[in-house]
Amino acid sequence: CTGCGLCLLACPFGVMAWAADGDVVHHCDLCAERRARGREPVCALTCPAGALSYEEYGDFTRRVQHRAAAELLSAQLAAVRR
Predict the structure, then answer these.
(1) What is the pLDDT of residues 40-66, one digit of tens each?
(2) Is residue 41 a contact partner of residue 31, using CB atoms and an 8 Å limit?
(3) Are the CB atoms for 47 and 41 separated by under 8 Å?
(4) Around Cβ 71, how many Cβ atoms within 10 Å?
(5) For the whole model, what pTM was predicted?
(6) Helix count (H) and strand count (E) of the chain?
């Protein structure tokens, strides 16, 4: 964080705010109360483009590895068919 405040403009949920001294921004806590109840952060739940997700690191890496392997296999099959 460089303290530029652009995150204040970018966050559609209004969870970012300047600290009382005005020097830094209080950042998002990823909806800690929601996560404590086993629910997703609101941003990940409502992202219209599906660009945001919230998941455990191991689940994320497995999902990305599976997707990469599927894309590689698809590319290899396409090359063989030519």
Answers:
(1) 998 888 888 888 888 889 999 999 999
(2) yes
(3) no
(4) 10
(5) 0.54
(6) 4, 2
